[in-house]
Amino acid sequence: MTEPATHPTAQGQPGSANPPQRPWRLAADLVRTDAALQDWPDERRAAALARLDEAGLPDGSGEDWRYTSLKAYGQRWSTYLAAAGPSTGPAIPGVTASQPVTDLQSVTVHVQVVDGVPGAPAGALPSGLFIGSLRQLPPDRRARAGDLIQRSDSLAPESLVDLNSALVADVIVIATDAGSSLEDTPVHVHLQGSGAPAFSQPRVLVDVAHNSRLTLSLEHSGREGTLANAVTQAWVGQGGHLDLIRVQCLPDDGMLTDTSRIELAAGASVHVTSVDLGSLLSRQSITVVLAGTGATATVDGLFLADGHRHIDNRTLLEHQAPATTSRESFRGLADGHVRGVFNGKIIVMPGAAGSNAALS
To answer: What span, in angstroms and rounded, lies between the C-alpha atoms of 328 and 359?
Structure first.
């Protein structure tokens, strides 16, 4: 991938005496010092910025981005950067950008995340469940969260993940205790964008302990002009199970890039259900790594779109261990001038004997 086309507002004029200022550098300069995270050191941000300097944002040159352009996405960001000032910071938790789609009467635990900053959970947390900000983790949770974050640092770089890492304001941590069963007490996380001039960078960290079960729904919405770059990382321990429901219902001019990575230990399982209903541009990338023997993954997706929407779903199911199983099914219904993109891959790595996979 190469650096995106030069935009005067964000990067300066090509060939000028001064080197161009990249938009992520401008944005990083605008992050207020009080937004710094104790467990998100400056070194991590600096490393992410350096990789962005080298690779830039996706420009359509690779197979994964062949049908989706981020030109309008970048232009909106440049406009927001021009409008933003040094005092621009994350929105105040608890400010509602839009009403959630989910019927909250049937949800035990609800969390609002506005422009990447989580508020306090609404509803009593059941035994065996922890939800909190990375800023406020107790010592017994901090070490585990740090281990999971470091796992992501060791993965092959992804530009949009690096962008999130460089500009993230906070991280919401959702963790279960070993042996806990929380399927009947689902967690609903409402990820909201407040609109111009905020560029939301929500980060969700999910830790499903061994032999525990969790149902989690992530709902992306926001005000007009919402621009968001979300990252979700999940680890499911041995014998654990995660039901993950993702719903995107942004306004007609909303833009979202959404990157998720889920790793499964031995005997662990995940069922991902993804639904796209809104936005002008939505690009989702889901990677499920079946890292342990006997792990199982089911991924179901649906988009319903009209007007001039562009909905892009990219999935990768990677079988790394023997006797692993995956099933995937995606469906789309488009009307008007909509463009729907699906790019699905299943990879069976050396040593993953007895893998069983199907994609529809």
So the answer is: 5
Report which of 191, 189, 235 is spatially closest to residue 90, judged by C-alpha positions.
191
pLDDT digits (tens, 9 = 90+) for 177-212: 999 998 888 999 999 999 999 999 999 999 999 999
| Tokens of residue 283, six digits | 């690009």
143-155: average pLDDT? 83
Cis peptide before 197, with omega less than 30 degrees from 0? yes
Residue at token pair 């060939």: 15
> Residue 148 is encoded by which pair of tokens?
């999971």
pTM over 0.70: yes
Helix (H) or strand (E) holding 79: helix 71-83
Q: What is the length of the chain?
A: 360
Is 232:204 a contact under the CB 8 Å cutoff? yes
Q: How confident is the model at residue 38 (pLDDT cuts 50, 70, 90)?
A: low
The b/e string for 322-339 (b: 16+ C-beta within 10 A; e otherwise) is ebbbbbbebebeeeeebe
